[in-house]
Amino acid sequence: MPFGDREDELWEAMKPSFKPRLVSDPNVKYARNVVNGTGPFASRSPAASHHRGDARATLARVVRCTPEVLVKVTGRKKGAKHLAAHLDYIGRHGDIRIETRDGEQIATKEDAQRIADEWSDPLYWRQGTTVSAVAMVFSMPAGTDPETVKQAVREAAERMIGDNHDYLMALHTDTPRPHVHLTVQAEGLDRKRFDPRREDLFRFREAFAEALRSRGVEAEATPRYTRGQGRAGTSMALTQLRARIRSGASRQPTEADLRQAREAMQIALGKAQQPAFVSKTRARWQDTKRRYEAAAERLDRSPDREDRNLARDVRQFLQERASIDTVPDRMLREAEARVRDAERRTRSSSAQEQEQGVPRGTPPPPTRRR
């Protein structure tokens, strides 16, 4: 291993470190789990725990653009009716078989309704509407074998969820990206709730990527800044709204896009400044690049040819990502282009008026009514 004592520094550049939100999050117990690596989604086996010795392999996958796994929560289903409608959706109204945790298949709408009722009945005593199940989706890029994706999701679910919560799975291949809908019962056998947060979802991503690699599919789970990507992901609802706009089904732009466009225009006109997180994102990427460059130098000194080849790939990766691009950066470029176009039209109009001998600012002659 050519990294030696600097391995921890490289690892921190490729894997996120989560800080508990003690001010905004009253759940101090959850914060303690984040710090100590404990809690319901902590690693349960040596195979699930990450060793710092994996730094070189992770670096190789990052700079060689290994496909990144996607894991997200798509919704929380409240009550039997809501949950039954969701199961009907992921089962494509009976066209797709839904599998249970034990591998049994649910083929009828009546069976799905029975499960929805069972998962919701224990919650009748709670005040108000309570979440019966949490819906998640696990996805891989186009070209990945769908059956392998499903097997990897099952392994990740067994590792991360265990036997405390029941869950259902449905494999979808009707889009270029094969994906699995995982629906998890909210109420566990120990009466604790299934409520994955940002830190937990990253652990699910890691477990999913490990399960894929164990089946011969190259996959990785790293944050955006590790890969030199600054554009944040969007919610499922916003993605669907934008898709409707692109398809022509809707002409009303989203409120988020309108707000970003207004903010970018204010920045382009010199009336506002870029958000603070943009400069922080650039600073983080510069720090990550510094660590990658240091790793490339150490790899270059290795007698192993594979290490020297990896050093070359690291430098090529950094050369192609000289800077990081965020959503505000893209919106600002578009706003600046609109400002330049408006100034160009104004100059062109003024030049035409001067050529015609009309003083600038002269109102047009009144039109005679017939």
Summarize the structure.
This protein has 370 residues and is of the alpha+beta class. The protein contains 12 helices and 6 strands. A 6-stranded antiparallel beta sheet has the order 1-4-6-5-2-3.
Can you characterise this structure?
Helices cover 48% and strands 10% of the residues. By secondary structure, the protein is α+β, with helices and mostly antiparallel strands. Strands 1-4-6-5-2-3 form a six-stranded antiparallel β-sheet. A hairpin with a 6-residue loop joins strand 5 (167-172) and strand 6. Helix 4 (79-90) packs antiparallel against helix 5 and helix 10 (276-300) runs antiparallel to helix 11 (305-319). It is flat and about 85 Å long.
Distance between the termini: 91 Å
Low-confidence stretches: 44-52
The percentage of residues in β strands lies in 5-15%
Number of helices: 12
Look at the structure and give the mean pLDDT: 80
Helicity level: 40-55%
Q: What is Rg?
A: 27 Å
The helix/strand series, from N terminus to C terminus, equals HHHEHEEHEHEEHHHHHH
Spatial arrangement of strands, main beta sheet: 1-4-6-5-2-3
- Tell me about the largest β-sheet: 6 strands, antiparallel
What class would the helix/strand composition place it in?
alpha+beta
Shape: flat
The number of E-state strands comes to 6
Helices and strands in order:
Elements: H1 7-14, H2 28-36, H3 55-63, E1 70-78, H4 79-90, E2 98-100, E3 105-106, H5 109-120, E4 131-139, H6 146-160, E5 167-172, E6 179-185, H7 198-213, H8 236-247, H9 255-268, H10 276-300, H11 305-319, H12 327-355
Antiparallel strand pairs: 1-4, 2-3, 2-5, 4-6, 5-6
